[in-house]
Amino acid sequence: MISRAVVLAPILLAQAVRVRRTTPRLPGAAGPVTGLVAGEGEPVRLAVLGESTVDGVGAATHAEALTGRLADELARDGGAVAWQAIGKTGANARVAREELLPLLEPADLVVIALGVNDTIELHSAARYRRDLLDLVVGVRRRVGPVPVVLAGVPPMGRFPSLPRPLRDVLGARSAVLDAAAARLALLPGVVHVPMPAAMLDPATFAEDRFHPGPEGYRRWAEQLADVSRRLLSGTISRQKR
What InterPro entries does UniProt report for this protein, alphabetically (predicted)? Predict the structure, then answer.
């Protein structure tokens, strides 16, 4: 049986070209890629590694993007948080391992946010899982057995900039890759946090209607913060033993 994607290939290609031509090209966040949220005690060292969302596209500064927002959430209990944003627009999981991993500084918690570019490039679930596993292993080799949070692949079926049927095809593909990433949560100290489709309110997107705006990053950070706190406290690690 011929798959729906194959039948629709000419339409999908035309839509993809049109989206690429008409979508505004927003820059990454300005300012330092490291920072400190002041608080009591020795700072928790947070590193966030990934694609354009970690590069801060859609926000003016990293303080308003995913890494800074997550650091703010983790500091709500009064502790200090030192953060590092290691992002590259257009990076897939393999590029992240080869080009971004060497930039990773010592950390107590690493958050990985990838999958949109692997989805757009139509990578298989097996490849994505393998590349993501290689990245997690590389993180542990570089900074030790730190807890790792795998942010879920955003459900691209909710991206306002994508027309149908392209939106439906990429939405289905992003779900497949997210399921592949979730299997890595079997590793000790690794947690996968899926992004609920309901979180993607069109009003929270940036001007390009493809990346989060500051409000979208805030909501995403809130979602990741609870799991991150439990990992740092050891609660999840103890449950896995």
Answer: SGNH_hydro, SGNH_hydro_sf
